[in-house]
Amino acid sequence: MDADHEDLPITAEKGWWHATVTFPGSVEVSPEAARTPSCALHDRRFHFLRKDGGLRLRTEHSAARLLDRLVTDGLVDGWVGGVYEPETEAFGGPDGMNVAHDVFSADSRAALAETGNPGARERCVLLLSVLNRAAGLDPFEVGDVWAKLGSLRPAVTAPTGLPRERAITAMRHLMNADAARRPNAEPGWAERVAAFENAGHRLRRLAADGRLTRGLRAVLAHHAIFTLNRAGVPVDEQAATAWLGREVAFTDRNEADVSTRRYTFPAPTLTRMESTLSSATDPAELREALVSRLVDSGHLHTPAVVSAFRDTERHRFLPGVDLQAAYVDDAVPIKHDESGEMISCISAPSIVATQIEQLGAEPGHRILEAGAATGYNAHLLGQLVAPDGHVWTVDVDQDLVDRARKNLAQAGATNVSVELADGAAGLPEHAPFDRIQFTVGAGDVPMRILDQLAPGGRLVLPMRIRGSISRSFAFERDGRTWKTVSCEMATFVPLRKGVCDDVYTLVPMAGEGNVRLETFSEQDVDRDAISTVLDRPATKVYSGVKFRQGDPWEWLYLYLYLALVLPNARLGRRPADCAYGGSRAATAERGQAPGRGGGVATARHHLCAGRRPARQPRHTPSTAFGRSAPCRRPHRGPARRRPRRP
User: What is the rounded distance in angstroms from the CA atom of residue 517 to the CA atom of residue 585?
Assistant: First the structure.
């Protein structure tokens, strides 16, 4: 018998017993009929698919006697044994299939018992959103997962007008909600959420290690198919759900020249002011409002991290600071040097959230944090690694160490240690660490740290890539090299008083004093010449790029343009798939130096004419000072959405 013979026997998959079960009186499994096997199989792992009005049941051990009894009692119409053929390739190979079996089994008991209950589709969206976030997908990659699902389902007739907006808004809320905090959840819901989150983490690791035989997003789309099937969601509703998921990611609610992250609060109708201050005086209300903003903006998405932010009282780490100011999305200085320059602060909540999401801390991890400051970040990490993990946080000033130690003790952190040490040198006596996080900026990777990272570990490091252009990178080892798995906007106070200081010089500027110029050791700048450039006439050149009021500046192309054209640019070590650009000021250096007709360029907002103030986009002009100012026109980048991750 050759390999193509039609009678070639199929070898049964080891570990799962298979049967096709049919039920009386209906072409679909009724709620009453579904609850019977769900209860009867309470003492064993099982999973199932709905097919042809019945169930394809898979159990770890034979359920023949149980099914015979159910047939005798008239609860099951009949059953037929068979061979279980797992869709191993669809789920990314043997390792991916192991992950799938675990999440199938964790979800099947409740999904079967919930047959016919309202809200099945919504529960699936919550669970799948947990899976996608834990797998490390950014919002557009999540949209691609839903698009892949939609391509495998019938076409939908898209709603229009108000029904369309309402449906997309509801889907967006589901995709960004904290599933673990779902009100009035059924028993066992938290365990299901945890199982989907764990599956996402495992799939992310498998993909990073090259152990999936299929693309990660394709695997996640297949998980969506099976999850919706277990919940009994009809195919047409699956198609509508996939369409909505895609629309959330890829459809703009308002046309614009540049698309960026959308926020849920309404656009202002007056001159823009700080919109996060309120009359609330209850710390719990302020903290909940902050978390809601961070979830809506996409800075927070992992349930465990969301819970840590909700449970950590940020104001307790800022004694003497106004209560409301503690919960505004802004950095709060806590120490200045003798010249008044800030040298330590508690980072803005959005930056803290971004870095902790990059870090991927898990229970049991050993973590080193460089930059203790107030101890707030270390307390968040301590919650994430509890109960068996531990966090070491270090700083270079004894007063900061004492302050962080006191704050953490008052907050009840028992798994966080604070030590006086140079973060760039690490703590080799406590190594290896599963995760290392820098909350101070560096000009390069501190090499001593790499040897203190455990196999499979991750380093999160804010690093300058060009002048003051900084990104927070997440690095993982890839054989003999290191690869970037995440890149986010972030700027921190620099490392100091150690082996890898990132020293900069603040150049005194003549003129109105509204431009700050920092130069770094690797930059060849005539500081004396550039300090008087603002005394020269200004020339304003409009880029043509428009931003709405309140949109973030991160991906403005002015910085990218200057970083590429300046003579001593150092972009060689950036990740090839990461887009850079955007900030509030940029400098021209030697080669376009003031002594040879160069100048300083700054980016400013300017209201466009003919629009209502609430929706008014703003041109982004570059104001240049100096004799050669009109010679170069800022690069106009293509309209694009702001990517959250590379």
Answer: 9
Phi/psi at 478 (nearest 5 deg)? -130, 85
pLDDT digits (tens, 9 = 90+) for 89-114: 999 999 999 999 999 999 999 999 88
Which element (helix H / strand E) includes 409?
A: helix 398-410
Q: Which CATH class is domain 293-489?
A: alpha beta
Break the chain into its structural domains and give their ranges.
Answer: 14-79, 86-250, 293-489, 503-539+551-570+594-605
Asked if 368 and 446 touch (Cβ cutoff 8 Å), the reply is: no
Mean pLDDT within 282-295: 91
> What residues act catalytically?
347
Count the neighbouring beta carbons within 10 Å of the beta carbon of residue 254: 10
Read off the pLDDT of residues 130-167 as tens digits, 9 standing for 90 and up.
999 999 998 899 999 999 999 999 999 988 888 898 99
What residues contact residue 228 under an 8 Å CB cut-off, 6+ apart?
A: 121, 124, 238, 241
Q: What angle do CA 87, 88, 94 make, to 5 degrees?
A: 160
pLDDT (tens digit per residue) in 110-130: 999 888 888 999 999 999 999
22, amino acid identity = T
Query: Encoding tokens for residue 126?
Result: 């919550």
* Distance separating alpha carbons of residues 220 and 111, to the nearest angstrom: 19
Helices 235-250 and 120-134: angle between axes, nearest 10 degrees: 50
Segment 368-425, tens digit of pLDDT? 999 999 999 999 999 999 999 999 999 999 999 999 999 999 999 999 999 999 988 9
